[in-house]
Specification:
alpha+beta, 2 strands, single chain, globular, two-stranded antiparallel sheet, about 10% strand
Length: about 110
């Protein structure tokens, strides 16, 4: 296991991740920080509440991507279907949402730092 320190909303959080996942987790942290930054002044907000709002924004984006995806036409029998860009984005956002939920539960525990 490795540790990655994320800066989200001006606060530092150290989270554990699998070896080799440090860059990916850091990128997810930057994505969350971007969402937190887009929410405006968060002075006085608790860490779980701040992360809840960021998770809600990301979940809303995922929902919109899924809703906007047109119904797929059946592919010809001889051609293997290629994953659509929005399907790949949906998979990535689902993965991010799952990791956000795990991160939020870790942050609510005694391992978070201010």
């Amino acid at each position: 296991m490795s540790n990655v320190t994320l800066s989200i909303g001006g606060r530092s959080f150290t989270v554990a991740c699998a070896e080799g996942e440090e860059g990916h987790v850091a990128g997810l942290g930057r994505m969350i920080d971007s969402k937190v930054g887009s929410m405006g002044d968060l002075t006085g907000q608790s860490e779980p509440r701040m992360l809840l709002f960021a998770a809600l924004l990301l979940a809303d984006e995922l929902h919109e991507l899924k809703s906007a995806e047109p119904a797929a036409a059946p592919a010809p029998a001889e051609a293997a279907p290629a994953p659509s860009l929005s399907a790949l984005a949906s998979q990535q956002l689902e993965s991010i949402a799952s990791r956000l939920e795990n991160l939020a539960s870790r942050l609510e525990g005694p391992t978070s730092s201010a």
